[in-house]
Amino acid sequence: MELSNDDLRLPSRLPDILGDEDRLSLKSSLHRHIIERLEEDGLMFEMERVELHPHVQDYVRSYLAEHEIRKGEHDTGQLVAELLDEMIGFGPLQSLLDDPGVDDILINGPREVFVERRGKLERAPLRFINDHHVLRVIRRMVAPLGRRIDESSPMVDARLPDGSRINAIIPPLSIDGPCLSVRKFRCDALGMEDLIRGGALNMEMSQFLVGAVRDRLNILVSGSTGSGKTTLLNVLSQNIGSGERVVTIEDAAELQLRNGHVVRLETRPPNSEGQGEVTARDLLKNALRMRPDRIILGESRGGEVLDMLQAMNTGHQGSMSTVHANSARDALMRVEMMVTLSGFSATETLIKQIIATSLDMIVHVSRLPSGKRLITDILEVQDVADNLIRTQQLYRHAPEEDEFRSVDGLSRTLQQKMERYRTC
Predict the structure, then answer these.
(1) Where would I find the AAA+ ATPase domain in this sequence (predicted)?
(2) Which one, of 284, 278, 209, 210, lies nearest residue 247 by Cα?
(3) Is residue 267 within 8 Å of 317, Cβ to Cβ?
(4) Which residue, 27, 314, 344, 410, shows the most beta carbons closer than 10 Å to its own?
């Protein structure tokens, strides 16, 4: 990763204690120096980090001695690690990507880096040299994926090889410099026991949800951004039986099903010429031809929701999806709005009936100001009366006592439906 002439320059002599600006200048100059030395020594080949480390360490020590910069062994080792990140990693981001405690990384220009830990945002003690530095890291991320980002294509969505999702947007669309959002992928998928320990639900609710999945109820998980919708969907989907064929459809593959018979499909954005896009709706229509027992749609956000409802209502019971909404009731309104905007020509009453006969349950998740994520409502979807979709609240979270409460029992209709699949 070569640095341009726009990068900060190192003064001829630096003080023993380096400030932030001087440290960035030192890293910039060291990076250029090391690239030149590697080229001179004929070492500019594909090398693993462990092979490159001793060479970079020697170059750094000789450079510091030549410029009479006195640094301790710890500081020198840190400089070597950061320079290796620049050369074969993702620069300042690498340490955050390697930190298992970080869930999200948010970069708002070169001087503002934030991370989310345990549901709470905090400022990270990291920064980039300038806008060019941020842009180079973004390009290094997306280039191996066949994607590009520049003034003619200033936005990009992609998935890293480890499963992490990234979104980047650069000037002129982002006013304060290149912005990058990284949603890290968890290799160790959470289970229901983890959610119980974390206070997301209680034992009674977990047993009910596990039974609802096994008895093939159609479930919609709703919540705001970052509330844990995909995490809950992943946990629920782990209870699908091993004898069922499941097709998953996602913008970025995150679900980690354990039933052994899973077909994973992923959407594809258009290329730089605007061609080749494959949408969730395209994949959903194709999935119906793949003999699935269940379909799991990572997120319903457009016309694909109509196809998903039709699949739920035509022999693919036990299917699941998520939707952005502020409450469980709002989720029904969102679904109704998306069906209407999909171009489906039907009366308002018919659309409500399709929704009511397709969905069995809505599980709403929320993120509290403390960062805690939990299930705040579980609703049974019943039928349509007086042009309204009737629901029955099964469980709710009482914030005043911070406890989960059972409200109403299942309707006889839904009980019979669960019993029918249980005996099949």
Answers:
(1) 215-380
(2) 284
(3) no
(4) 27
Strand ranges (E), 208-301: 219-223, 246-250, 262-266, 294-297
DSSP 8-state assignment for residue 361: E
Taking the mean position of all CA atoms in its chain, how far away is CA 151?
25
pLDDT digits (tens, 9 = 90+) for 89-98: 788 888 898 8
Instruction: Report d(CA 223, CA 322) in Å as an integer.
Output: 8
Residue 105, CA distances (Å) to 66, 174, 254, 381 in order? 37, 17, 17, 37
Separation between Cα atoms, residue 153 and residue 168, nearest integer Å: 11
The single-letter DSSP state of residue 145 is G
Q: How far is Cα of residue 253 from the mean position of the Cα atoms in its chain?
A: 9
Element holding 183 (H helix, E strand): strand 179-183
Nearest to 298 by CA among 379, 231, 366: 231
Burial 31-55 (b: 16+ CB within 10 A, else e): bbbbbebbeeeeeeeeeeeeebeee
Region 212-229 average pLDDT: 93
Nearest-angstrom CA–CA distance, 342 and 393:
29
CA dist 365 and 60 (Å) reads 50
Q: Is the pLDDT of residue 178 over 90?
A: yes
Q: Which residues are CB-neighbours of 27 under 8 A, at least 6 positions away?
A: 79, 82, 83, 86, 129
> What is the Cα–Cα distance from 14 to 25, expressed in whole angstroms?
10
Token pair 């949800």 in the structure block, residue: 209
Quote the CA–CA distance of 98 and 309 in Å, as a whole number. 40
Is residue 18 very low, low, confident or very high in pLDDT (cuts 50, 70, 90)? very low
Give the whole-angstrom CA distance, residue 45 versus residue 143. 18
Omega of the bond leading into 172 within 30 degrees of 0 (cis): yes
Q: Are 153 and 270 in contact (CB under 8 A)?
A: no
Within 13 Å and on the Cβ side, how many CA atoms surround 222?
A: 21
